[in-house]
Every structure is written in structure tokens, then in C-alpha cells.
Write a structure and sequence with these properties.
By secondary structure, the chain is of the alpha+beta class. The protein has a domain of 130 residues: Acid Proteases (Cathepsin D, subunit A, domain 1, Beta Barrel), CATH 2.40.70.10. Helix content is 15%, strand content 42%. It has a six-stranded mixed barrel. A five-stranded antiparallel beta sheet has the order 2-1-12-13-3, with no helix packed on it. β5 and β6 form a beta hairpin. The termini are far apart.
């Protein structure tokens, strides 16, 4: 089994434990730990009124439509790299430290192997995987924009999984949101 697939399976197993109509709420505590809960009342009051991160676009859109397959949340993400704008379909993965894109999306963006730094990362099963570490000009999900976004390009072996990569905490950690699986939306706070 490819190493990235093992990490993906661990992330998917975690998602499968959520009830089908669950809303997820996220906040960052005083130690910088991102905490995700299934009930807004579990978010301490001092974190409920935090303003969005400075990297927010400030747009007025409150909802972003997503595709829900079982408990998998597929998010439309726009990437900008060297003037190329490409929309990808990314699996929301709060267990991924970085946003990871697969080679097909990297190719559509015009990313070449010499555009990033060679990197080795540890995945959920403790093994290591090679990747290409780099920054794109920006990433956008609905109204939320992150400039100079950190991503890794993972090698994908095997059949397509129906998405272009993993939307990780390098993006998600900058914003308050909750996921409404029943309505197939992300609600931005």
C-alpha cells in the first residue's frame, strides 16, 4: 500500500466516526493547539469571539458548498501559481499538517520538479515519504484567502481517488469554521 494512502486511510477512519449530520467547530487554544469539537458549546467562550485571521479576504460570503461522500468532505480550492489559476477538489483533512497536492493538480498549475525543495515527511503510520515542498502564490476556499501558502506535492501511485490532494492545517488552522455535513457546507465564522 502506498505510504500516502496509509496516512489518508488513518484520516478517513477518523472522519468516519462522526455522525452524519454533525457540525464541526474549530478554534486554536492559548498553546497554539487546534481543537475541533462537535458542539459549539464545547468551544470556550474566550475563543468564540476571536476575529478571523489577518489572512482572511474579508469577503462577505459565509458559506462554501462542499461535496460530502459518506463522511468525506471534498472542498473546492482555488490555487494560484506563477499566474496560473486552477481549481482543485481537496479532501478536508485536519490530521494533515500541510496541504498536500497530487501530481495531476501540480501539473495543471505548471509546477515542475525543480520549483520546490525536496523534502521527507513522516506520515500517520510512522513511515517516511518523499515530497516536493514549496509555496504557491495563494490558496482560496470560498471567501478565505491565504497568501504564500505552504504545500507539498506528493507522488500518487494507483487509481484516482476522486480528489486532487489533502486540504491540511497549514490552511485550515488560519480560519474559524464549522462543517455542516447535512447541508454540505463550510460555515465561516
Amino acid at each position: 500500500m502506498p505510504k500516502y494512502l496509509a496516512a489518508l486511510l488513518v484520516a478517513l477512519i477518523g472522519l468516519s466516526a462522526l455522525p452524519a449530520g454533525a457540525d464541526l467547530f474549530q478554534y486554536t487554544d492559548k498553546d497554539g493547539t487546534v481543537v475541533i469539537v462537535d458542539d459549539e458549546s464545547k468551544v470556550p467562550a474566550r475563543y468564540r469571539k476571536k476575529s478571523p485571521a489577518a489572512s482572511s479576504s474579508g469577503g462577505s460570503e459565509k458559506y462554501t458548498g462542499v461535496t460530502v461522500r459518506g463522511n468525506k468532505v471534498i472542498v473546492p480550492v482555488t490555487f494560484s501559481y506563477r499566474g496560473n489559476l486552477v481549481q482543485g477538489r481537496m479532501l478536508l483533512d485536519t490530521g494533515a499538517s500541510l496541504t498536500a497536492i497530487f501530481p495531476g493538480l501540480a501539473s495543471r498549475l505548471g509546477i515542475q520538479p525543480d520549483h520546490g525543495q525536496r523534502a521527507v515527511g513522516r506520515i500517520a503510520d510512522g513511515s517516511f515519504i518523499e515530497a516536493q515542498h514549496m509555496r504557491v502564490e495563494y490558496m482560496q476556499v470560498g471567501p478565505k484567502v491565504q497568501q504564500h501558502s505552504e504545500v507539498v506535492v506528493l507522488q500518487q501511485a494507483g487509481p484516482s481517488m476522486g480528489f486532487d490532494g489533502l486540504l491540511g492545517m497549514s490552511f485550515l488552522g488560519d480560519f474559524r469554521y464549522h462543517v455542516n455535513l447535512q447541508n454540505s457546507t463550510i460555515e465561516w465564522q
